[in-house]
Amino acid sequence: MEYSLKLAHLYGDLLNTYGDIGNILTLQYYAKQMDVELAVKVVSLNTPFKADDYDMFFFGGGQDYEQMIVSKDIQDKKQGLTDFIEDGGPGLAICGGYQLLGKYYIGADGQKISGISALPHYTNSQDNNRFIGDITIKNEGSGDVYHGFENHNGVTYLGKGERPLGTVISGHGNNGEDDGEGAIYNNIFCSYFHGPILARNGELAKKMLLTALKRKYPDADFSKQEALEIKPT
Questions:
Q1: Are 140 and 187 in contact (CB under 8 A)?
Q2: Mean pLDDT of 107-121
Q3: Active-site option among 9, 121, 172, 194
Q4: By the 8 A CB rule, do 158 and 180 touch?
């Protein structure tokens, strides 16, 4: 392989409830087509996250019990993750990972679970309700239409400096009120899409890989990688 990238899979041994590890498999699939070796390391409990050690990260979700454990441990990773995010490092956070990068979320039992405030959103809970079903959104910047499946009790409200990953065409989105789904902050992409999101929306995987490559190899010519055709799924 001509290029190499290293991805941190945050709490990959704990947060695999919805099969979103498929996002990593998708990144590896497209990376191979782009002449990139994508190495993956699980960064879990009692393991530091050093911003300079990684080119990308993936942060999935799980049940409240596991997320409470992660919530306590991730405070020790707060500075490293914040530094990485503010320096323009790319990452993908799904569901619980999305919530824990923010200020806090309220669990189904009403308990307030602390995030790391690396991103300015916060998440409340719904009473006896979940947003479940197919969802379609449109990214207003690129015009890309993303398809997925949402399943979440949380209702998330974005903060200063964040914009939605897309505008809801059908489905509920972040909170069922403001027509937004997910979040973009610097080069971090957040979403409630399961499925997993990248398997059905390869343009987003390509965008993440190109962002990481250009950040690591600023003088390289990636015209070949940019020309990679993503076939509809």
A1: no
A2: 92
A3: 194
A4: yes
Tell me if the pTM is above 0.85: yes
Q: Examine residue 196 and say whether the peptide bond preceding it is cis (omega within 30 degrees of 0).
A: yes
The annotated binding site for substrate is made up of: 130
Weakest mean pLDDT among 61-75, 118-132, 187-201:
61-75
Contact assessment for residue 24 and residue 58, using Cβ atoms and an 8 Å cutoff? yes
- The residue annotated as part of the active site, out of 9, 95, 121, 190, is 95
Catalogue all structural domains in the chain, each as residue range(s) with its CATH number. Answer: 3-227 (3.40.50.880)
Give the CA count within 13 Å in the CB-facing half-sphere of 201.
28
Q: Is 9 a catalytic residue?
A: no
Active-site residue, 95 included: yes
Which residue ranges are tagged as binding site?
130
Widest Cα–Cα separation across the chain? 53
Say yes or no to pLDDT of 87 above 80.
Answer: yes
Neighbours of 182 (CB within 10 A): 28
